[in-house]
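Hi C.,

You asked whether I'd gotten around to modeling the 148-residue construct. I have! Everything is below, sequence then structure, no commentary in between.
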Amino acid sequence: NDDSLIYVQPTAGIRTQILVPSLSSWKDSTKDVINEASLIFHVDTIMSDYRRYSMPPRLYLVTDSAGVEVFPKDSKISSNYYGGFYEPISATYIFNVTQHLQQIIGGLENRTFYLVSTDRIGTAQRVVLKGLKSFQPVKLAITYTRNK
């Protein structure tokens, strides 16, 4: 749904679905090179009530393949490159999905993203993120080079 809030909590089996349907339209851009692509989630610091409930220091952005969570290719480069860490100054979680988007251009099926807590059993950390209908919506920032 185009909701104003996204809830992420560490309950086993709970995950937040993130759809980016426009990614499929990039498949015809095989000559384009993705230089950088980031998926940016802004924290709603008021709704998160971070003074009462600590926010997770990190979130994971995964895809689903036949019921199995799969990390994007970017996660295999390094954890700092892939991201997902809470940035307190900007109150954001930023994921680098450059390689993943390049794979979609090359023909990889555009699977749905899922946002999950890194520790789903041993902690009560939770966070509320701003959705599409909020003041600072989820943002997909792409820098690319068009080859002729």
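If it helps when you're writing up: The chain is about 10% helix and 35% strand.

Thanks,
B.
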